[in-house]
Fold these 2 entries.
Entry 1:
Amino acid sequence: MPSLTSVLGVLDPTSDRAVFRQIADALREAIDKGRFREGDKLPSETELVDHFGVSRMTVRNALSLLQQEGLVLSEHGKGVFVRPRPPVRRLASDRFARRHRDQGKAAFTVEAEAAGSRPEVDSLEVKEERPSQDISARLGSPRKVLARRRRYLLDGRPVEFATSYLPLDLARNTPIAQPNPGPGGIYARLEEMGHRLDHFDEEIRARMPSPAEVRTLQLASGVPVIHLVRTAYDAEGRAVEVCDTVMAADAYVLAYQLPAN
Amino acid sequence: MPSLTSVLGVLDPTSDRAVFRQIADALREAIDKGRFREGDKLPSETELVDHFGVSRMTVRNALSLLQQEGLVLSEHGKGVFVRPRPPVRRLASDRFARRHRDQGKAAFTVEAEAAGSRPEVDSLEVKEERPSQDISARLGSPRKVLARRRRYLLDGRPVEFATSYLPLDLARNTPIAQPNPGPGGIYARLEEMGHRLDHFDEEIRARMPSPAEVRTLQLASGVPVIHLVRTAYDAEGRAVEVCDTVMAADAYVLAYQLPAN
DNA sequence: GATGCATACTCGTATAGACGAGTGGGCAAG
DNA sequence: CTTGCCCACTCGTCTATACGAGTATGCATC
């Protein structure tokens, strides 16, 4: 095995760059150059302390930088590893097209199985509640809404947490209020009930997750979330659903097609 | 002024939650409840040390947690502040519609001024180069491309860094190869040259910035980037441009409209 | 009044040491 | 062979201390 010096180099004591940044730079470069590959274990903190001749806090400082960048993840009792890039789920802009809605299964399940992954949906909760100010405004200020919460997992890993809100007068005592709304999902049910869907508006933000989101999505540090809010409009221009989705950003790429007009 | 104890509470020594997490929780809660507002200065590290009766490293550990979450930002010599939410730029899905293209000014400038901000475009670089594998594949494998790089600023703050790539056979010796391509931008020039634009594909990812991106966008820690890659197609189905854009995620919300088909 | 310095405050960087807790391998006992 | 324990190694948490560097303020000097 190659010596640590040949992989990581040495510190430049004349540099005004902070030592822990130099160490982070050395590790980052080694990872970029493929000297450490996805899933590889980095040298232990003790080894880095010995190699660079610095204190352990300095090494930990460097590693925490890389962790914030999402480059590595540390596992208690095992070591620090180059973070593997998970398979990415691609969301196409036609994913709600009517032609994708006839299957007996949910779109998420069909698509995941086609990609060779094992899909799961859990923590399904369906209840009536008072909408937040934001949701209320988007739905035309209904007094109460039906909220459908669920979490999506791929191969056991949570990747997405979504809540659909529908005006209660529209959803109460319909299949939409059931845990499983049936083939084609709630959009198929809405259309059966005479709300022909016209278009969707989507708003996309990216930010760091809240502690609660870190828990439910089991996010490694250094992984942002994509926050997507979709509003569905029927042919009369009424907002019939708002879907608030938080996705692990390292598991998704969103694709849209725009006309040039 | 209220006592620190009434604002932050005290530690629970019986809890198995790490002390620095308890401190972070206390500060987070105080911020959420509005006891510290945007731009407010948090108690100094020394004050927190005295209040909680812990060592400074523990306090710094707590603050660094909040910083990773994007909640606060620290300024050397001044203090730690609740991070102000910057004004957000909304990118609508019709932003490339032909009707927005007649102005003499660039779309970015018009839009920013309408929003009351002071727009700037800088570090404009136009050069011919060999495309990366990814860009090459998207453009139909041209041998060389014209690359147009620029950075956008709002009120002096960099918010976006973008590079447009065009096949060289299409762009060489045209206004597109000029630093300022003229009114309506390069899309207007492309259409004048007979490449009537048909549609755009956009791919969106979110991730933590690289160190280089932190520098050019002057990003605070805890701020992810949105990485957008747009491909423009003409009426013959040829990819005529790829635009690779990295945006400060706290400055943008992307909006799309999808037909329901 | 303007300039410049001293000072006190802020966070940034670094050292050295200690103990806790999760993991995995080896070894001894059953 | 299996079970269970010990041990070595890993990262996690915390203390105590020191000095450097950026900022703001006030005061003395010009």
Entry 2:
Amino acid sequence: MESAFAILAEPNRRALLNLLATSERSVGELERRLRLPQPSVSKHLRVLREAGFVESRVDAQRRVYRLRPEPFMELDSWLAPFRRFWSAHIDALERHLDRMERQPAPKRRNRRASPKGRKR
Amino acid sequence: MESAFAILAEPNRRALLNLLATSERSVGELERRLRLPQPSVSKHLRVLREAGFVESRVDAQRRVYRLRPEPFMELDSWLAPFRRFWSAHIDALERHLDRMERQPAPKRRNRRASPKGRKR
DNA sequence: CAGGCATATACCGGTGTGGGAATATACGTC
DNA sequence: GACGTATATTCCCACACCGGTATATGCCTG
């Protein structure tokens, strides 16, 4: 279960993280909010803890979980190369729309030469 | 296999996307660069395509794949709530280090705007 | 120390998914 | 049309993982 993405592939784990994004919470609270069986919550929290997404503090019989920033920062930096790409894309789109706006008919674009027997 | 995270849980798929981040590439090229069996590449590309991460263009017998921005933008916005959290964290750390550095500390540093690729 | 609450762990069964090998499809060339 | 290349698809199997149930551990209160 190495990668952060594998951890986040699980919907309930993402839900847990979303709740914890607001504030730290006890297991019982998470359990009630998500309407999940307690063992399920504990197991997912374990996975999240071992992956570094959360850490727990002991408060009497309760365990209070809170987020840790590192894995999110890693996610963010993984995303970085693609961010370059998609913002370029958006820029291009915007420029395109600009041109469309003041030039009614762009007539480039290729026509197909021979319509052939297509399958499917 | 709904979520984008489930798609990215697969290391080979992430590798494919990383290659495509540079430029569009044919299946054969991806195959050679990643040293993966061809069916594997095709299968992963299919998953990526159906999830909207890539699209393919036909060039004679070749299929050339390129990235699509949407899923990455979704990822980025999923990350947003946590970004708030972790940048607060970093601010605290920076302020702390500042105080450590210059003895009896002055007030505050300026706020950070956008996170960059950090190392550990 | 008993009993209760909060949480963690162990066990088990079903299922989805990735890898490998074989095969199918599409296209371009002779 | 036969062949070669490029890519897609199918089939099968092993295995990881999730959910559920039962049980263990830890701490608090009387």
